[in-house]
Amino acid sequence: MARTTGWRHTSPVTAPTSDAFAALARSSPWRWSTLRFSLRWYPEDRMRPVHAWVRRPADVRVEPENGGPATVVHERPNDRPLPGDPDFPEPIRRTDGLVARRGLAWADAFDAPMYNTYLWVAMLDPVELAEGHDPDTGERLPGTVIEGVAEVDHLGRRAWEAVLRPTPAYQPRCACCALLWSRESDLIEYGPEGLREDYPEAYRVRLDVGTGVCVLAEDLDGSPRGRGHSLRIEAVDEPMDDGLFL
Q1: CATH class of 16-238
Q2: What is the pTM assigned to this prediction?
Q3: Is the pLDDT of residue 125 over 80?
Q4: Neighbour tally for 69: CB within 10 Å
């Protein structure tokens, strides 16, 4: 049986600005219901390339690019309502339909469906690129400085590209799996005694305009430990049969 949902909000968005980029990073849970894509991680020996099918809120299928057995995950994140549920609170939207503020906790990352690492979660719902919080007071603050926003083509799809630098308020979904590996993420994960000297200063980041997914993150400094990924979206909101997720 194939399922589709009618809760998506994909109205036209405005020209790319720093504020619009942050709003798009908050908007992914409301902009797609199913996603088919291929994914490569950098450095290339970090994780193997894969093809994936994701059906919100609970199903994912992942196949190695070079063949091998598929991994299927069924995981609803928790008992609270999710986008698409009748009692889920709507976010505060801008006039272009992008999310100005989520209505619950500081980030409200929607963890499922997840595969292998919280990088997967952050990539599909990159709210950490917009929302941060003061580690002492909990006050919401920008998680990154966003500069040089421009519209680009990413593997055949419309995307917004910007240079991002984490702020002291940067709060990755999981510090060991941050989209922007940095001094800020390691300080959360390891404390001051675990810090290094060779962190990237900035990242090139692309968000797919149609979905809000982070389709590219790459270290601009050439750090020997720099990390990143590139994602090619192949289909959005196509019906997905239950048989895919057996």
Answers
A1: mainly beta
A2: 0.90
A3: yes
A4: 7
pLDDT in tens, 58-113: 899 999 998 889 999 987 666 667 766 777 777 889 999 999 988 655 445 566 67
pLDDT at 6 (0 to 100): 41
| Amino acid in the structure at residue 232 | R
Question: What pLDDT, in 10s, does the model give residues 102-111?
Answer: 865 544 556 6
DSSP assignment letter at 204: E
Beta bridge partner(s), residue 141: 132
Angle (CA) 114-115-116 rounded to 5° is: 125
Average pLDDT of the chain to the nearest whole number: 86
Q: How far apart are CA 130 and CA 99, in angstroms?
A: 11
Distance from chain centroid for Cα 71: 21
Task: Give the chain as a DSSP string.
Answer: -EE--S--------S--HHHHHHHHHHGGGT-SEEEEEEEEESTTSS--EEEEEETTTEEEEEETT----EEEE----SS--TTSTTPPPPEE-TTS-EEE-SSSSS-----S--SSHHHHHHHS-GGGTEEE-TTT--EEESEEEEEEEEEEETTEEEEEEEEEE-TT---SSGGG-SS-SHHHHHHHH-GGG--S---S-EEEEEETTT--EEEEEESS--TT--EEEEEEEEES--EEGGGG-
H/E element, 189: helix 183-190
Dihedral over Cα of 243, 60, 216, 4: its sign: positive
Terminal CA-CA length for the chain: 12
Residue 170 has pLDDT above 90, yes or no: yes
